[in-house]
């Protein structure tokens, strides 16, 4: 029987496991990196230890430090969560050798199922259809290129050792293959410590369906229904639901039986997931995830089973207490992942301090969060902040509940994907269940997220706040006070000159007129040209600066001299050009890694590289200069 469980992870999954363990009378123990010293998940632990510096390779992937923490805190068991070391067979083995219960499959089963290559081979042997491709031992670039040409394009390059979209690239023609292969290898090595790849024919517009597996150590294996995970961006899931609107009872039974055969073929024990692609021609086994999935709450909601507690019970040697026939779904559940990504900037990661964190609540709503107000969101780890889950009697009711929950979810301090999630929840095709893995690519026009300027009254109230806060006396006439209000919708330049009246100013610039303001305790009263300026109750964020003068340029910083700045904080993993080189439009300049994903920085026009300001391996801040471009020739 477990007594003290070390949770070798962070964020919302560490909180989720800690809560499940505590309900079973098991003491949850945590770990943290130097960047996570004040992290939200630590408040749910009985004890915790620092396991290294901020980079994951030196902390959350440091098996030696994690086992040392387990010994110090007298842990008798370890739950890996998902990501990080959760699918490393070698880690499962050293945990077992250290005398701890590993909450997950055996190292042997993990090696077989965690490798996409080996799992596909065993699935095919068990009579389960698989996607055509190449999974050979020869991993040389020439051989992979040759196999890609044989399979035909479009093709998918995939990391054998992991998931979450890392180490994955779609290649549509042979000329793109070499760069995509190199990027996939780098990303796979960085995320999983293994750059082994496989190639698969890229199926056009399929659905992504996965089946939840539970298997005990006494030979019993069941599936706990399917999850629809088709809405994805960059091969990372955004929305998941259970059941799938595409499956009939007959197809559910057939695919579920196939999932059970795949698990049995590797001797699987614990909770795991068999993933499939489904198109008009049929279904194909994709991979097996030898761990808990991010989207497990929708299965819990529909089947009334706590999957984390069942992981703990199975690891303690208990038998499953239900049969396949007894597992019947009830209602409909939907999960949406809330991430620190900005839809108005192509979903670039957003870092910073969360100033406001208000979660929805109510019947049929659940939020699994890894942050709260005051939490710092950095660039070292995954961008996911929380998962919003709803459950209702049917799909239409679940969507309506999700729409209401999203409207009650408020985050300030970092940009999030909440606008994207709200768009999905209201989309006609989504509500009709007409979805596939190209859903966002086909239907979403990202320009709808372009920020709009705040209303004039909000700008005037912000200017009044600044003017009332100023201590120096005002002079009458001339430009007495330059104000620049910058928001996500642009900048507003104003010049305020005092008038003969108390607390009244003449405004010039982007807004022209007379502004007056008085403060009574917490209340601010503002008038413009004699009319009251209304507070609409919404919050608007402005950054302020003083323009250098009346002719300040409001264009993008550095655009005139061709300077390319970092769109977000990150690490430079590749510099592809050198000073003096001529570059063509869309030519790769460098690759920036942020929140475990790689981002290409390309030239927008033909130019000459005047200077390269960074080197590979360097950490840069958002807005930092990267490359200087000039006229070609």
Task: Describe the protein in words.
There is one protein chain. The chain has 633 residues and is of the alpha+beta class. The protein has five domains: 4-103, Rossmann fold (3-Layer(aba) Sandwich), CATH 3.40.50.20; 132-201, Dna Ligase, domain 1, CATH 3.30.1490.20; 207-449, D-amino Acid Aminotransferase, Chain A, domain 1 (2-Layer Sandwich), CATH 3.30.470.20; 456-545, no CATH class; 563-630, RNA polymerase II/Efflux pump adaptor protein, barrel-sandwich hybrid domain (OB fold (Dihydrolipoamide Acetyltransferase, E2P)). 25% of the residues lie in helices and 30% in strands. It is built from 15 helices and 40 strands. The strands form eleven sheets. A seven-stranded antiparallel beta sheet has the order 31-30-29-28-27-26-32, covered by helices on one side. Strand 27 (490-498) and strand 28 (504-509) form a beta hairpin. The radius of gyration is 27 Å and the shape is globular. The model is unreliable at 473-479 and 546-561 (pLDDT under 50).
């Amino acid at each position: 029987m477990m007594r003290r469980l070390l949770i070798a992870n962070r964020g919302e999954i560490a909180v989720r496991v800690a809560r499940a363990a505590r309900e079973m009378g098991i003491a949850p123990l945590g770990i943290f990196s130097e960047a996570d010293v004040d992290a939200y998940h630590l408040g749910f632990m009985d004890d915790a230890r620092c396991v290294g510096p901020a980079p994951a390779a030196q902390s959350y992937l440091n098996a030696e430090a994690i086992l040392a923490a387990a010994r110090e805190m007298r842990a008798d068991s370890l739950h890996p969560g998902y990501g990080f070391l959760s699918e490393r067979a070698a880690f499962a083995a050293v945990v077992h050798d250290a005398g701890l219960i590993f909450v997950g499959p055996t190292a042997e089963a993990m090696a077989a199922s965690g490798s996409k290559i080996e799992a596909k081979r065993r699935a095919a042997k068990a009579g389960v259809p698989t996607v055509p491709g190449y999974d050979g031992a020869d991993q040389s670039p020439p051989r992979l290129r040759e196999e890609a040409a044989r399979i035909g394009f479009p093709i998918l390059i995939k990391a054998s050792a992991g998931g979450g979209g890392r180490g994955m690239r779609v290649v549509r023609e042979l000329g793109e293959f070499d760069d995509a292969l190199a990027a996939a290898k780098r990303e796979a090595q960085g995320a999983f410590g293994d750059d082994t790849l496989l190639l698969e024919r890229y199926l056009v517009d399929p659905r992504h369906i996965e089946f939840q597996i539970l298997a005990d150590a006494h030979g019993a294996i069941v599936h706990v229904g399917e999850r629809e995970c088709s809405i994805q961006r960059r091969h990372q899931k955004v929305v998941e639901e259970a059941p799938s609107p595409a499956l009939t009872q007959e197809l559910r039974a057939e695919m579920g039986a196939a999932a059970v055969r795949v698990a049995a073929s590797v001797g699987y024990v614990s909770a795991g997931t068999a993933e499939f692609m489904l198109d008009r021609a049929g279904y194909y086994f994709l991979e097996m995830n030898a761990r808990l999935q991010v989207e497990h709450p929708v299965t819990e909601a529909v089947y009334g089973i706590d999957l984390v507690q069942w992981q703990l019970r199975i690891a303690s040697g208990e038998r499953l207490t239900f049969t396949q026939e007894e597992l019947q779904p009830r209602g409909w559940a939907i999960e949406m992942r809330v991430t620190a990504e900005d839809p108005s900037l192509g979903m670039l990661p957003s870092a910073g301090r969360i100033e406001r964190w208000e979660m929805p609540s109510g019947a049929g709503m659940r939020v699994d969060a890894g942050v709260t107000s005051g939490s710092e969101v950095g660039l070292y780890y995954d961008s996911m902040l929380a998962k919003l889950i709803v459950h209702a009697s049917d799909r239409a009711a679940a969507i309506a509940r999700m729409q209401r929950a999203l409207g009650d979810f408020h985050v300030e301090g970092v940009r999030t994907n909440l606008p994207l999630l709200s768009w999905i929840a209201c989309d006609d095709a989504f509500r009709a269940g007409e979805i596939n893995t190209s859903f966002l690519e086909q239907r979403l026009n990202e320009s709808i997220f372009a920020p709009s300027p705040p209303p004039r009254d909000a700008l005037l109230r912000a200017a009044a706040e600044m003017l009332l806060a100023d201590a120096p006396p005002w002079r009458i006439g001339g430009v007495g006070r330059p104000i620049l209000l910058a928001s996500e919708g642009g900048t507003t330049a104003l010049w305020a000159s005092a008038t003969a009246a108390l607390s009244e100013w003449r405004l010039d610039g982007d807004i022209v007129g007379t502004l007056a303001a008085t403060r009574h305790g917490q209340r601010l009263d503002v008038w413009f040209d004699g009319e009251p300026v209304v507070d609409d109750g919404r919050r608007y964020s402005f950054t302020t600066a003083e323009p250098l003068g009346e002719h300040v340029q409001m264009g993008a910083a550095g655009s005139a001299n061709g300077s390319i700045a970092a769109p977000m904080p990150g690490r430079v993993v590749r510099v592809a050009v050198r000073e003096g080189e001529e570059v063509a439009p869309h030519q790769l300049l460098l690759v920036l890694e942020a929140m475990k994903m790689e981002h290409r920085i390309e030239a927008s026009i033909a130019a000459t590289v005047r200077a390269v300001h960074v080197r590979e391996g360097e950490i840069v801040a958002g807005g930092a200069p990267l490359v200087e471009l000039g006229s070609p020739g």
